[in-house]
Design goal:
This protein is of the alpha+beta class. The chain contains one helix and eight strands; from the N terminus they run E-E-E-E-E-E-E-E-H. The longest helix is centred in the C-terminal third of the chain and has 26 residues. It has a five-stranded mixed beta sheet, with no helix packed on it. A three-stranded antiparallel beta sheet has the order 2-6-5, with no helix packed on it. Helices cover 17% and strands 32% of the residues. The chain has two domains: 100 residues, Immunoglobulin-like (Sandwich); 34 residues. It is globular.
């Protein structure tokens, strides 16, 4: 008799995702929404879903599971409720989910983060988008400063 696979059903409270945009080579700090110092929290699980694969375990505070494609690219901070990803690339895009497990193997809380790759050349300092955006923002800021000065004088 041989065990082929073990499956668990994980049901967490619903939460809105946070979106983080990154460029090639940047780092990201993903934070899990929890108070990990509360006694009933026993374990934090991190999962990743990409375009190529459904949710897969990424890391857990109990067993330290690390997928081969992320070996050396991330670590947990001093607080296991944060996951730090280094040297990000387009293949790291996807949904990252953390689940805070209680002693009864119930998901007490969690956080979903969407990592979206942005080509830095697309909106680089030489791009039309950057030039127009900078001009609009600086004009808007100048207009607000003028309005404040006029209001102060009146």
């Amino acid at each position: 008799e041989r065990l082929i696979a073990v499956y668990s059903l994980l049901v967490c409270p619903k939460f809105d995702p946070y979106t983080f945009y990154f460029s090639q080579g940047e780092s990201a700090v993903l934070k899990c929404n929890t108070d990990i110092f509360r006694a009933e929290y026993k374990e934090i699980l991190w999962f990743r879903r990409t375009a190529e694969q459904d949710y897969r375990p990424l890391f857990d505070t109990r067993h330290g599971v690390v997928p081969l494609d992320l070996e050396g690219k991330f670590n947990t901070s001093m607080l296991p409720s944060s996951l730090i990803l280094f040297n990000l690339s387009q293949t790291d895009s996807g949904e990252y989910l953390c689940a805070v497990m209680s002693g009864f193997r119930l998901c007490a809380s969690g956080t979903k983060t969407l990592l979206n790759f942005v080509d830095s050349d697309m909106y680089g300092s030489g791009s039309t988008f950057y030039t127009v955006r900078s001009a609009v923002l600086s004009s808007g800021l100048l207009g607000m400063i003028c309005a404040l000065i006029i209001n102060a004088l009146l």
